Amino acid sequence: MNRKFSNEEKLSLKKKGIINQKQEDFYVFRFLSDVGYFKASEMRDLAKIAETYGNGEISLTSRLTIEIPFIKEEDIEEVIKFAKERNLRIGGAGNTVRAIISCKGTVCKHGLIDTRALAKSIENDFLGMKVPGKFKIGVFGCINSYGKAQSNDFSVMPSYNTEKNEMEFMIFLGGRSGRKARKANPMDRKFKEEDIKKLIKIAIEYYNEKAEGKERFAEIIERLGEQKVENDIIHKLHNI
């Protein structure tokens, strides 16, 4: 009989994107996309995992990752090996900066910026960073995604300034969905593109510094006040 994982081992797996199902002997594998994109060859490999080790089904998540359910406990190492050989990334869980999402502004006629390029740059610098709870970042290409921008810990949305003839960016802080939902508001001022990653770094550092226990960023804003958090972050930006 195969040895069963302890609760500690299950928690360790969950942090890596391998999540124990309610069906106790089965696990969901979460695979990270390239900010919303998978190559056709990767989709074929993922389909093979689902057919060989799962129940033949693949599901999509709100953060543009793919999950394959019903992986047996005894097959976990085989799936990990298969994924590594094909450069499929398992992850997107735990108290970390989660998968970066972007709308299709790169190809959408309404998109004001190359959302995929900006999201990929952000992912390269911040994906997987440790935080007290979780931290979700979104990149959106136009005002049509305003509601989606309000549901992330940190969101970016362009706005064209016709008077200055230049692109500016709205930054949304402290949104979250779920049972303690909070709609993020854009900061009072707009920013240049070169400020975006500086602001993300400051926001994450601020989150790590101010969090009590496993608070989400939204809870810090609610506890300290939206204006104070915004002023603190802008002050830190000016002192870089």
Could you explain how this protein is built, in words?
With 240 residues, this protein is an alpha+beta fold. It has 2 domains: 7-93, Alpha-Beta Plaits (2-Layer Sandwich); 97-239, Sulfite Reductase Hemoprotein, domain 1. It is 35% helix and 17% strand. The protein is built from 8 helices and 9 strands. The radius of gyration is 19 Å and the shape is globular.
Describe the structure in brief:
Pfam families: NIR_SIR, NIR_SIR_ferr. Residues 20-82 form the Nitrite/Sulfite reductase ferredoxin-like domain. With 240 residues, the protein is an alpha+beta fold.
What are the salient characteristics of this protein?
4-stranded antiparallel sheet, 240 residues, 8 helices, Alpha-Beta Plaits, 35% helix, alpha+beta, 9 strands, Sulfite Reductase Hemoprotein, domain 1, globular
